[in-house]
Amino acid sequence: MSGLRSALAGMWKEKWINLLSVLSIGVGLFILLVALFTVYNLNYFASKLQDQFSMTVYLDDGISQQGLARLEGAIKANPAVRTVSYISKDAALGELKKAMKDSAYLFEGLDGNPLPASIEIRFRRDNLKSEAAQELARQIKAMQGVQDVQYGAKFLEGIERIITGARSAGIAFLAALLVGVLFVCYSTVKILFYRRKDEVETLSLLGAGGWFIRAPFLVEGSLLGLAGGLLACFATYSVFGGFFLGGFASSVPVLRYMLFPAFIFYMPLPAGLFIGFTGALIALGRIRI
Amino acid sequence: MVRFEGVIKTYENQQALTGVTFQAARGELLFFTGASGAGKSTLLKLIYRAIDPDGGSISVNGIETSSMKAGHVPGLRRMIGVVFQDFRLLSGRSIYDNVALALRIRGVAERALKTQVMEVLKMVGLRHKADSWPETLSGGEQQRAVIARAIVAEPVLLLADEPTGNLDPDTSAGVMRIFKDINARGTTVLIATHNRDLYTGTGRRVLKLAGGRIETEAAG
Lengths: 289, 220
Ligand SMILES: Nc1ncnc2c1ncn2[C@@H]1O[C@H](COP(=O)(O)OP(=O)(O)O)[C@@H](O)[C@H]1O
Ligand SMILES: [Mg+2]
What we know:
The complex is a heterodimer. Chain A is of the alpha+beta class. Chain A has a 4-stranded antiparallel sheet. Chain A has helices spanning 2-13, 15-52, 65-76, 89-99, 130-141, 153-195, 197-205, 210-251, 253-256, 263-266, 268-285, and strands at 54-59, 81-87, 118-123, 146-151. Chain B contains 7 helices and 10 strands. In chain B, helix 3 (95-105) runs parallel beside helix 5. In chain B, helix 6 links the parallel strand 7 (157-161) and strand 8 (188-192). A 6-stranded mixed sheet of chain B has the order 6-7-8-3-9-10, with helices on both faces.
């Protein structure tokens, strides 16, 4: 308790340095959140796009019931596959007619059904890699009763590139910001320590051990981080809560489909506390008392 | 309690102590005197390892300190109470907190510490200044606050560097009485002073420093 009191008194004495560092930590954490939010939503969009992805297996006209069952079973055995649905020749033609009912005359002279039966495969999210899809397509194509396999290879590669790109850029950016905020805490604590060198020396001469001397600075670093976190929380509430979710979002369609995960509203607090404490710990660990 | 054997201390090629040898017995009250710059402060600082000796050996309470590891220095300092010549009161903390600090450093619980602190403040006549800041105290009051901090934890050894440098004769006599009381309770007391009045007539040993060594030993 007395540690907290003397930490607060010490912080008040250096209020300008502390205010500056709280502001930097707050801004840093807020940018960090915006970046996290962006990556989160990019990922979300990409995985939604993945749901739309399907692979179509065109079948030979002469395929038997057993042949079909065997084929379906073999495809289902692949762990990436979520659902398998069979579309008969008739169903395919029906679909086509429905889609082109304005041009029904095209079908008048048609004798027999030229469309093949097919199997439509949908995949589990997260488990879909373009290489795996390519491999699966090659395997299926080699199976008996299969005429052809078609899927949006380029589409899949595109999504994949978005996800990995967003992830690695996001992680690099987040790491850089994290290091930046950590450095602010680190150097603030270091400055505070050197500005109180007289006091530190006196404590040491009175027989205080290293951690007795360091403890108030650790408390200060943690409080700085926490205050910065609080500031970032406040900014998040007013920007995301008011500006986005309020009037602005409904007029910009894209924003309406974005996710606002709860963590962006409370994460700055523990993050600030953790970064502040860690920064102080690193700063003090390197100081000889 | 304290033993010096041929102790040498050199500051940037200026020899402050050229070979100091003496022993202070447990329970003794002993004076160091000598002209300004004779090395009195240097001698005391060597005892609580504020500075390292350049030669010779020093033992405190049976512990050889000249070869002591840095990690053991805080423990050594906690056995000793020091009345610093330059006070070293912490600004931004009340007199009470300044005195309580000596106990907190030694791990005394907050509950147990209050009566001890107030008792010592009463002893040095600063009870009414417990909540004041150090800056608002007179030189003499600050001096007594430093003494209170040095004795509150009842150390086995008390070092006082010019403890009456800022005091009028009456208050000086009061401070000497405190040191005698502490000494009577078993604490070994070493006082560095150039104030003759402090030791004259006490009958205690007075070691006079000159030329970087103990020049004479006499009874005060
Ligand atoms: N930190 C220091 N750096 C250089 N010289 C010092 C230092 N401290 C003391 N001295 C010198 O050592 C000598 C002894 O000083 P000191 O022990 O303070 O004497 P006293 O306390 O008897 O007046 C003096 O000549 C002083 O100038
Ligand atoms: Mg001196």
